[in-house]
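request received
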Amino acid sequence: MRTIPITVRPLTEQAFAPFGDVVSVEGAERRLINNGSTERFHDLAGIDVSEGGGRAIVSLFRGQPFAPPVVVAMMERHPLGSQLFYPLSGRPFLVVVAPDEAGRPGEPLAFLCPPGTGVNYARNTWHHPLLSLEAVSDFLVIDREGPGNNLEEREYPDVRYRIDAVAP
Amino acid sequence: MRTIPITVRPLTEQAFAPFGDVVSVEGAERRLINNGSTERFHDLAGIDVSEGGGRAIVSLFRGQPFAPPVVVAMMERHPLGSQLFYPLSGRPFLVVVAPDEAGRPGEPLAFLCPPGTGVNYARNTWHHPLLSLEAVSDFLVIDREGPGNNLEEREYPDVRYRIDAVAP
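response:
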C-alpha cells in the first residue's frame, strides 16, 4: 500500500469554500444590538438539514487528541445535511476534506483550524472524523436528526495519506 | 415606579423547562463514535426555526458585562423561532425569563447559568437580552433568519425588577 504525505495548509475562507463555511468573526457583518450592549457577528454559517424531513440538533463532541503522524485511511460524508464544528477548547484542530470523485473521496486536503474558528461541512462533503490536537477537546456540533441514511463512509482502497506535521 | 428585588436561582433543567432547553452534557445521551475516538453527547437542544419559511443560522454574540444591581425594565421574545446561547468564555452569565400574561411578560425569573452550560429559549418565550458577567464574553448563537417579524419587545409598564446579587 502506498503512503502519500500531505501538508497542512492555513484555513482560509477561499480555500475552504468548496467544502463549506469557515465559522469566524473575521470579515463577518457586525450589528450592534441590545441597546448597544451586544455586538452580533451575523450569520457565520447556514444550517442545511431540512432535506428528507430533517431538523437541526445541537450536540457536544468530546474528541481524543491526535498527534502526528496522522494516517488518513477513510473519509465520511452526510448526504442529507451540513455538519458544523465549533471548538470550545481554545485549541487548534485539524480539518481534512476531499473532493468527490465519482462517488468516492479524492485526494485529501488538510487545514489547521485555529482557536476560536470552526467549520461547517457542506452537505455531502467528504471529511475525516474529528481530529482534535494537544488534549481532549470539546466542540459544539450542529447537524441533522431525521429519517434516512445520513452517513456514508469510504476507505481509500489502495493508498494511505499521512500528515507528518500539523503546523502549516 | 415600584422596584421589586428578584433573587437568582440555580439553573436546572426542571425549573427552566417551561422556557426552553438547558444545553449541557449533564444527563445527555452519550454515544461513542469515530471508532471510539469521540464521545457524542447527543441532541442537547432542538432548533425550532422553520415557522414562516425560516432557516437556522449561526452567529456570535459579544456581550458587554453587567454587574449588580441589574435592572430589568423590559423583555423580548421571538415569535417565529427558538434562540440558543452557548457560552464560549468560560464565565457564568445571567438568564432572565418570564411567563406570558395576556401578551405581556409576567414577573421575571432569574437563573445563573454556569460555565459550559447554555440555554435555548423556546419560540415565543419572553427573555431579557444577553446579560454577560465579569468581562466581555462571547456566545455562539443559533437562531432564525427569514421573512416576517421575529422580534417583540415590551417594557414593564409600572414596575422595575432588580437583581442585587448574581450568586444563587
